Amino acid sequence: MRKLILYIATSLDGYIARADGRVDWLESVPNPDQLDYGYADFLATIDTTLMGNATYQTILGFGGDFPYPDKTNYVFSRQRGQADTAFIRYVEEDPATFTAHLKNQPGKDIWLVGGGQLNTVLLNAGLIDQFIITLAPVSLGAGIPLFGPDAVETPFKLIKSESFETGFVQVVYEKVPPPTPS
Q1: Which residues pair with 156 in a beta bridge?
Q2: How many helices (H) and strands (E) does the chain have?
């Protein structure tokens, strides 16, 4: 079975973006050696992305070419009848049902790009297998949280942590398997 991995950056206070969706604060931390924090290696392990429509619109707002043209990209939207593009397919069905089905298909792992609402739905459905969270050395005070207020308590175990000279810290957590019946 394919793993669903939430690979994302957050501020120290748990926000993935400003309230208006901007992530300019990620570029505010000096990175003179142009570290990619394992991003290229991670991209090689996935062949599919999942994102909410607001996250997709933020990505389009960066300008330039679409960043994942060699992946199968799904965008969840509540708006009906949106036309697919050369690089993305819109999904109107329930995100948890769609993702559970997708995880059972052959392929590489799946990147949950975000945002907070989709993260919450898939966390609550027990579908996120791994978190790779890069903490930025900045506090925003407000914005879009990593998870919404309906997120259920879910245990994970720490697999790895790494700190960088830039002040970023990356942590990897995996889902704790359910206890086996005795």
Answers
A1: 175
A2: 4, 10
Report residue 179's pLDDT band, with 50, 70 and 90 as the boundaries.
Answer: confident
C-beta neighbour count of 38 within 10 angstroms: 14
Compute the half-sphere exposure of residue 121: CA atoms within 13 Å on the CB side of its CA: 18
Structure-token pair, residue 42: 């991670």
Sign of the torsion angle spanned by Cα atoms 58, 61, 64, 69? positive
- CATH class of the structural domain 4-140: alpha beta
pTM above 0.90, yes or no: yes
Peptide bond into 14 cis (omega under 30): no
Q: Which residue blocks in the chain are alpha helix, DSSP H?
A: 39-43, 53-61, 95-103, 116-124
What residues does each domain of the chain span? Answer: 4-140
